[in-house]
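Page 42, continued from yesterday. The earlier attempt failed because a stray header line got pasted into the input along with the sequence. Redoing it now with the clean sequence only.
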Amino acid sequence: MKILFIAGPIVLILAIVGGLIAFKVIPMPGAKPPVTKAAAPKTPDPVKKPTPPPVAKKPATPKAPTVDLKKGAETLAGLWNNMDIPTLVGITKDWKDEDLVVVLGKMDEAKVAEYLTAVEKAKPAHASALSKLVQIQAGTVAVEQG
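This time it went through. Structure tokens are written below.
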């Protein structure tokens, strides 16, 4: 009877551990997984779509250059300072007064005076209007943003 009390619990413990191992609750070191049938090798698709050639990228369009009107007016004023007055009057006859005054504001004052005198002989009202615009242009102060 003593043997039953000693062997009974040992058999019971072994049965529980064996069941846990069998149901893979407890992994058993060194045990190999069961052999399953190997999956059949995949056959390539009989109809394979060819990959299209890569699309060539369009070159980036260059940005339009920014126009610096102040620098353009200064350059043009330098050219006009070296011209004779009748030629200058002929060049500027189709200019808008607002555009003309910007360049006149960058020119030598003596040259502008000669120009206005020549314009006054042909069109006194136009010379007067240009003089007023030159005055406004000269009195305008640029406000700095900060």
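Notes: The helical segments are 2-22, 69-81, 85-91, 97-104, 109-122, 124-139.
Reminder to self: strip header lines before submitting.
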